[in-house]
Write a structure and sequence with these properties.
2 domains; tetrahydrofolylpolyglutamate synthase activity; ATP-binding; 15 helices; magnesium; Dihydrofolate synthase/folylpolyglutamate synthase; 11-stranded mixed beta sheet; 6-stranded mixed beta sheet; Mur_ligase_cen; UDP-N-acetylmuramoyl-L-alanine:D-glutamate ligase
Length: 430
Amino acid sequence: MPGNETIPAPGPGASLDQWLTYLESIHPVEMDLGLDRVLLVLRRLMPARPRARVITIGGTNGKGSTVAALEALLLASGESVGSYTSPHLIDYNERVRVNGSNASDEAFIRAFEQVEVARRDTTLTYFEFGTLAAFLIMAEAGVSNMVLEVGLGGRLDAVNTLDADLAIITSVDLDHTAWLGDDRNTIGFEKAGILRPGQTAIYADLDPPPSVLQQANAQRVNLLRPGNGYVVLQEGGHVAVMTDSGHQVVLPGDRLPVHSLAAAAVAATELGLSLSDQRIGEVLAGVSLAGRFEQVSHHPDVFLDVGHNPHAAQWLSRRLSFLRRTGGYTRIVAVYGGLADKDSAGVARALLPVVDHWLLGRLDVPRGLSATALQDRLGSVIPMGRLTVCDSIREAISEAMASAGAEGLVLVFGSFFTVAEGRRYFSASP
């Protein structure tokens, strides 16, 4: 495929921002699913597979939480680990972490320079270029574990160019339907593309689609999932995961999805980490993740969440219902900003029973919806008396704080861009 290079490759001394601007210019489309081009460049960069153990995490929702939990468990066991996630909230450096710290600008620039030389006339998307750079950064650091989050789908995602020693599929639901299909079974087939013959894998959520089970059976994968290999017990506010091999780990029941944490606990036992069940529970209790039900202010209590599809909104709805019962909140107000390719109406339906008032804000980003466009989508779902249109996310947050009152709760959510605006708003607050 011919390139679309509108700017020359950065020279010596170029900044990370200059490199990122260049990466945005070298492929004619944002997404170009397929492994051939990435594999070609990967073989030039890494003729042999990295020595590190590779743990690949795919799924619709819950991937970032699972990565964070596994990273914490590996570090607590004394192992070195590199992790790769996307997208980022504020800084690109968030995408690659080495032993718990974001990779430096210098590490990214060195890796980008190597990828640029190796690709020759092969075009790579922004994500593909960054994925190969992440592999190089981890290899340079000499980590013994690589925890990799799939960007989109699984089968044709750049992360899937490395064979996983352990694969985790967190959930399968409707999202990115233009690329992955418009039903769970078709999407499940794409997610299950990260499985490898004879490996152990984990499906974290309940009710896997038939395509995932079929792929696992066809490849003789030992697929552990709730009810088959382990169970997740929730009683009286207490949550625990119990494995068929005799492990029992108490899980935290708030902030992050329980099934993601359970999958990380099961993975720790499968990987043979030198941690007792009690220690696994203690480590998981301390895991937090920016933008995943992250509390950033009090009176009113303000939470940020990157949930952007109906499946994620259902989890948020359950969490908010629990907090209303236990926290005594008098009013729950949502600030919502979304992208054009997301099911905004489905998100609103999931949260309508628990949210008292909605404030819609404009997202000034590619695919971002104006507040009036959001209103058009949600007008048949949210009664007009419970909905306010604002010029920006910042204005919506200010109005939400006043509307909620000191004893209320504000949820700022809808996309990574919405949460990034929320984090900037509160970091600048006195």
